[in-house]
Amino acid sequence: MKKLFFAMFLLISSGAFAQISPAIADSATKKSVISPKFDFIEMNNNKLWVIDGDKKTELTNTLTLINETTIKKTGIVKWKNGKTYKLMEGDKIKMDGSLLKSKAKS
User: Fold this and answer.
1) How far is CA 63 from its chain centroid?
2) What is the maximum span of the chain, computed from C-alpha positions, in angstroms?
3) Which residue in 23, 39, 67, 71 is deepest, having the highest Cβ count within 10 Å?
4) How buried is residue 102: exposed, middle or buried, by Cβ count under 10 Å (0-12/13-18/19+)?
5) pLDDT tens for residues 11-56?
6) Number of C-alpha atoms within 13 angstroms, CB side, residue 60?
């Protein structure tokens, strides 16, 4: 019975989260699992935004990409090789972890 209830909960909750946001929080690790389809993550007004076409959703948890690049909601990016970078206004990260720095730096 518990397995059935858990399976129903997963089906219902995954559908609800998919409609709300492409970033789904994993409560056990407090990391986000990202939908395989998004254009980029952008720092805008000191917040991180997941951009997918014309949809824009704020990133509220640490995100781990498939290549083990982690992106904290504070804008700190850490690649698998240990290199870190603080995203600045207008910087973007693509799904593969590549960094697109903003051309307009002050």
Assistant:
1) 4
2) 59
3) 71
4) middle
5) 454 443 444 344 444 555 555 555 457 789 999 999 999 998 899 9
6) 11
